[in-house]
Request: fold
Amino acid sequence: MTPLMRRVEVACLSPSGDVNISPRLVPALPAFEEPFAAFTRATLVATDRGLTAVGDLWPGDQVRTVGSGFQTLLWKGTTLLVPQAAGQDPAMGTLTRIAADALGIARPMHDLVLGPSARVTQRGAAVERLTGREAALIPARDFIDGCGVIEITPPAPVEICHLGFAGHEIIVANGVEVESYHPEPVHNLGLHAGYIDLFLSCFPHVDDMADWGLPAFPRLRRADLDLTCAA
Reply:
């Protein structure tokens, strides 16, 4: 059976400083969809030019990160989120809308709409008890409560994207800390050997999985924290 395919676009900074753009068809599998599905175009992030919409970012831009200062954007992956497309993972047809102050004062500063693979940082005693780290990364979808954080199905296709740097970075989007792209360990990607080379070909700025380095923070689900708080 032929797998459902997804059309994506990869923009990557070359060693010479040029930006190479390549459209691709990739299998509509979580490992291939996650790298293209975190931010919507209107999301604002800090750059050396001031606040800039993610849709206007380009490899080579300097983006302010949490803890690492300005970092060069090396990679941007873009696709279309198509609501109610036949055969796709239903999550790939929805967005998460976080109302102003829903996660705390100025988190976000104004409404933030994120794609299905976005993860946001969470801090607190429960995170420290569970991970031994100051923060963890939680899927934005896990915060959906039907009130301050809701799932929305757009009426038409929406462009979504993800951002990649030399390492795993945290950037502030509309006042909320959101991770840059960093893959799961290869044994968690759920890809058979024949797909690994195809997966890596989507990231011309890396030669192998080790080039991404260590993740900035551990990844958890919101339910893990709820269980820790209840214990």
